[in-house]
Amino acid sequence: MIKKLFSIVIIVALVILLPACGKEKSLKSDNNKVTTKKAEITVYLPEGQQLDNKYYNDKEVAINYLPNNKGAFTEKEVNDIVNNIDKHVKVLVITTEKTGLEGVFKKVKDKLPGVITVAGDIGEMHNDELYSILKNPKLDVAFTVENNKKGVESAKIAKLMGAEQYIYLSRTKSINPEVNEDMQEVKEYCNNNGMKFENISVDEKAPYSDIISKVKKTAAGAIKKTAVFPSDKSLSKDVLEGALSEGYMVPDINSENDGRLLSEVLNMTKDYKKLPREEFDSKVSQKLKEYNLNGKIAGISEGIYSIPSELTIEIAKFMYEKNYMIEECYRDVSVIARGNRNLKLSILPKDIGLSLGYARNLLVTPRIY
User: Fold this and answer.
1) What is the pTM of this model?
2) Angle, CA 165 vertex, CA 163 and CA 167 arms, to 5°
C-alpha cells in the first residue's frame, strides 16, 4: 500500500514538473554551431535575441540560434542551415545583422522549391548588397525595421499620453542628415499639434546626472507634462530610469530590447524570461502604477528586431489556416492586419524598392504600457 502511494506521488510530481521543464529555453547556439530544430515554421535568430515566449512552446514553430562568431557567416554555416531544412518545413525565416547567409535561400529553393523564404532584416539589406537581395528570385519576402526615423511616431504617442512638451534627446556624435531630418519632422508635428518642441544634445560620455539635470531644466517645472524621446539607443536606459525618478513620459523607450531593459530596471527579469509577452506587458503596466506612470511609457517588449520573425510566424499561421496563397497574405493590408490583430502593434509597411518578391521596411509603433 505504501509503495503504491509512493508511486502515485512520484507520477503526480512528474506531471507537474514536465510542463515547467518545457518552458526552459536557451538563447544560444550549440557550442558555436547553428542549432538544428525544425518545424513547419523554422526561424534562425542571433544569439540572445528573444521572441514572445509563447512561440517557444508552439509545435508549429522551431527557433534556432546562430553562432556569434567574428565576421560574416561561412559556407559551412550556410550548408548547416540548408541541411536542416526538409520537406516538413514550410517557411524559413532568417534574422541577423551579419552578412553571409543570403546563399541559404537559393540552396533551399533549389532543394525544396515550395519552402517560403523570408529575410527578416539580414546584414545584406544594410549595405551595397541590398540590390542583389531585392532581385534574388529565390527570396520570397524581405523585411527590415525602421530604426532611424522614429521621432514623429513617438511624438504622436506623446500627444496621446497628454504631453504638452516634447524633448528630442540625442547624442552630439550621432547627429547626421537623417537625424536632422527626423528632428525637423518632429518639430513640425509638435508645432501643428500644440506641443512645445525642444532638442537636447548630450556628449557621448555625459553621465546620468547631467542628462537628467538638462531634462529637468528644459522641462521648467512641467516635468510631468513632458515627454522625452531617446533618439540614440545608448540613451534609453538613462531616460527610462529618469522617468521612474522624475515622472516624465517616455513615448518610445527605443532600446535594443525594451522588454529586457524594463525587466532590469523594474526588477522583473524572471517574469521576462518565462511569461508570454501579453502577460509580461500587463505586469509591467501594474508595476508602473507604483510610479504613477501607467499609460506614460511605450515600448516593444520582444525587441524591435524580433518583429519581422513574429510577423512572419503570424502570417504563415493565418495563411495555412485559411488555405490562402502567398500572394494573398503578403500584401500591405495583410501585414497591417496581422500586426494589429496578432501582435497588437501598429505596423506601417513601406516599399524598399523594386523587387522580385515582397520587400518592405516596417515602421512599428510601440505599445503603451
Assistant:
1) 0.88
2) 115
